[in-house]
Amino acid sequence: MSQHLSDYQYELPRELIADRPPPRREESRMMVLDRRSARIDHRLFREFPGSMTSRDLLVLNDSRVIPARLHDDSGGLEMLLLERREGLRWTALVRPGKKFRPGATIPTAGTTATVIAILEDGRRLLEFDSPPDLERYGAMPIPPYFRRKADASDRERYQTVYARDPGSVAAPTAGLHFTREILSSIPHAFLTLHVGAGTFHPVKSEDLSEHRMHAEHYSLPGETAERVNATRESGGRVVAVGTTTTRVLESLEPGPLNAATGSTEIFIRPPYAFRRVDSLLTNFHLPGSTLLMLISALAGRELIMEAYAEAIREKYRFFSYGDCMLIV
């Protein structure tokens, strides 16, 4: 089995990294990968409803991205808020680190942050004097590989049209392709997983068994649990939108689902056997990422790497603002 980091590397031309979304959400390209026949088809996302039947259920993550990237009043110090703790405390990624020693105070976002501690992985625990005004001072936490600063357009486009529950510091990007019109034409249900520090934590060990995921918090409503159960009982497919949705559904105990809240550190990689997800809509992922390993567990590493090679030949757009793949 593919248990080595080097098995999940590939070369991507820089020009295929999308740093802006397409003019219209539904105009993204969609590769359809049939994992049983190994067939690859090339479509547009607006054709996605034709891939669903009336017995299928689409499950989406409705977490809302918060404008979590802050700078101090001088503009020279940067903080990316990751997770709210008790009271006015947050964990954060910071730079430059030497300016964020314990006891340091940083004026930002209409208040002041004090560095309480340096955590084991280098993150800082910050405490604010009053709630930071993220809506006024914060920027959307777009990925660093965009190589640009967030602007006003990212407030809309780095957010799904169905986002409701604030808490993510990265978008569940497979959902960015949906319009309200497309979604209204498909049976669907929601759950919530707040995308956190795990998104930024690269795999560093060649032996994948040594990698540990950061915990991310989720909530599964009772209505969604009932609809997933009914879909499976009727022989329909559970179609997950994104790896975040997949991780929630696969984290829960075997058997019929019930309403649940909690956190998950699940690391899905070959030879994982999926229990609830039958099909997956996902974007194209970074080399060596846990997300690439997850989809390899669903479709097989060799087939995924062949599909990625084809996507590069066909000049698909990669990563958060890029095109998508439907694995059936």
Structure description:
This protein has seven helices and 17 strands. The protein is α/β, with parallel strands linked by helices and 328 residues long. The protein is globular, with a radius of gyration of 20 Å. The strands form three sheets. A nine-stranded mixed beta sheet has the order 2-1-17-16-14-3-12-13-15, covered by helices on one side. A six-stranded antiparallel beta sheet has the order 5-6-7-10-9-8, with no helix packed on it. Helices cover 18% and strands 26% of the residues. The longest helix is centred in the C-terminal third of the chain and has 13 residues, at 301-313. It folds into two domains: 5-65 and 144-327, 3-Layer(aba) Sandwich (QueA-like); 69-137, Beta Barrel (Thrombin, subunit H), CATH 2.40.10.
Keywords summarizing the entry:
328 residues; alpha/beta; 2 domains; nine-stranded mixed β-sheet; six-stranded antiparallel β-sheet
In total, the number of strands is: 17
The CATH top-level class label of the largest domain: Alpha Beta
Structure class: alpha/beta
For the largest beta-sheet, the strand count, sense and barrel status come to: 9 strands, mixed
Instruction: Give, in spatial order, the strands making up the sheet with the most strands.
Output: 2-1-17-16-14-3-12-13-15
